[in-house]
Amino acid sequence: MIIRILRHGETEYNRDWRFLGQKDLPLTAEGRAALFASGERPARVFVSGLRRTRETAEIIFPGAEYIAVPGLNEMDFGDFEGKTWMDMKEDPVFKAWIGSERFTQCPGGEGRAEFSGRICEALIKIIGTAEAAGEQQVTIVAHGGTVMSAMERFCTDRPGQYTQWRLGNGEGFLLEGSGKGAGMRWHVRRRLSYVRNAGRVHLYYGDGRGKTSLAMGTALRALQRGWKVRVLQFCKNAGSSETALLQKLGAEVFYGKEVSGFVSSLSPVQKEQLAERQTAMLAELMERFRGEEAGSGQLLILDEACAALEYAVLDEALLWDSVLRKPSRLEMILTGRHPADWMLRAADYATELKETAHPLQDGLPARCGIEY
Fold first, then answer.
1. Cys-Cys with 331: which of 53, 133, 199, 306 at CB 3.0–4.6 Å?
2. How far apart are CA 47 and CA 5, in angstroms?
3. Is residue 71 part of a domain?
4. Residues 81, 130: one domain?
5. Is 239 a residue whose pLDDT tops 70?
6. What's the average model confidence in pLDDT over 7-27?
C-alpha cells in the first residue's frame, strides 16, 4: 500500500504563528497561491472535517472525490487556540502542558495521548477499508499534528518523536505501508512538498566528471540572489579552488578531513576519527539551520555524501534524518559516485553523470584549475 499524507496549506493563524487547532479557518490567498497541482490524480482524497484540508486537496489533487473524516481533525487546543507562544509563555498551565510534551490535557481541549489515539484509529480504518477494496494507494490531506502523530506511531524504520516529524504547510511524506490494523508499519520513501518555493533535494551522482562542479555552480547562483550558502565537503581537506572562491563570495565552507590522502588509505583508527568528526559537523550544521529564521533562501551542499556512506565515515541515520526531516526552507544538494537506494528515492532532482571519455584513461593526471 502506497500512502501519501500531507499537511494543509497556510491559514491566517499559521502565518501569525497562532495555535489553530479545530478553529475552522480557510487558506489565505497567499497560502492558496503558494500551492501547485500534483501530477498525481488519485480518484479519492481523504480530508479532515475542517475546510482548510479540503481547500488544499482541491488545489493539489483537482478533480478527486473528497471524503471528510472528522477523526483526522487537528488537536483541540481548547483555551490555547488563537494565541501565540509569546502570549502564553508565562502562563503556568501552558508551561505545564509544554513541559509534559503535550500529554496533559489542554484546558477545554485534548491531550496528546487522546489526540494521537483518535488519529491512529481513523487512519487504521481508512487504510483497512482501502485494502479490503483492493486499492493500492491512499491519499490523505490533514494537519501538522495529524502527520506527527501518525509518523510517530507507524513509522518504525526511522523512529522519531512527535515534534521531529514537524512539516511546513503543503508538505508531507510518501510512504510504503505493510502490516494490518494496529500492527501497520510505514516506511518512508520520500518527503513531499507542493509549495512552490519550498526547499528541494538534489542528487548528482555517477562515475562521470562534474558532480561537484554542478553543485558549486548552483551555489554561485544562490549567492548572487542573496542566499545563505554552506558547503560541507566530506572526505576532503582544504585546498579546492572552487570552495576558496565561494568563501570570498560569502559562503561558509567546512572540510570533513584534516589530513591529506584518500580515505581508502586511512587506518581503521583514522576512519573512526573521521566518522566522529564528520557526523558531529553535519549534526551541528543541521541544528544551526533549524534554529535560524527563514529569511532569504538557504542552501546546504553535502559534497561526497555518497562516498562518506560508502566508506562508513558518516552516521547514515543522521544523514537520512537531515535529508528527510530537514527544515522546509532548506535546499540541499548531495553528490557522490554511488548513492544509497534511499537517496535516489528521496531526491527531487536526480542527475546521473556517466563517464564516456576521460583523459585519465590516457594517463593524464588531474590538472590544476580544471580538476581542482
1. 199
2. 10
3. yes
4. yes
5. no
6. 96
172 lies in the same domain as 236: no
Query: In this structure, are residues 262 and 234 in contact, taking their beta carbons and an 8 Å threshold?
Result: no
**What CATH number does the domain containing 129 carry?**
3.40.50.1240
Domain that holds residue 168: 2-193
Q: Cβ–Cβ contacts within 10 Å for residue 78, how many? A: 16
350 is a domain residue: yes
pLDDT tens digit sequence for 301-312: 999 999 999 999
**What distance in Å separates the CA atoms of residue 129 and residue 134, rounded to the nearest whole number?**
9
How far apart CA 160 and CA 153 sit, in angstroms, is: 9
In a domain, 218, yes or no: yes
Domain limit, last residue, from 193, 223, 253: 193
Per-residue confidence (pLDDT) for residue 206, from 0 to 100: 95
Among candidate residues 193, 219, 242, the one where a domain is terminated = 193
C-alpha cell of residue 23: 478553529
User: What 8-state DSSP symbol labels residue 59?
Assistant: H
Q: Is the pTM of this model over 0.85?
A: yes
**Which amino acid is residue 108, in one-letter code?**
G
Closest CA to 195 of 213, 170, 166, 175: 170
Q: What whole-number distance in Å separates Cα of residue 260 and Cα of residue 262?
A: 7
- Number of Cβ within 10 Å of residue 267's Cβ equals 8
Rounded Cα distance between 88 and 207, Å, is 55
371 in a domain, yes or no? no
Residue 62 and residue 87 in one domain: yes
Same domain, 275 and 159: no
Going by C-alpha positions, the residue among 140, 134, 120 that lies closest to residue 181 is 120
Q: What is the pLDDT of residues 152-177, one digit of tens each?
A: 999 977 777 888 899 999 999 999 99
67-to-9, 111, 174 alpha-carbon distances in Å: 18, 26, 20
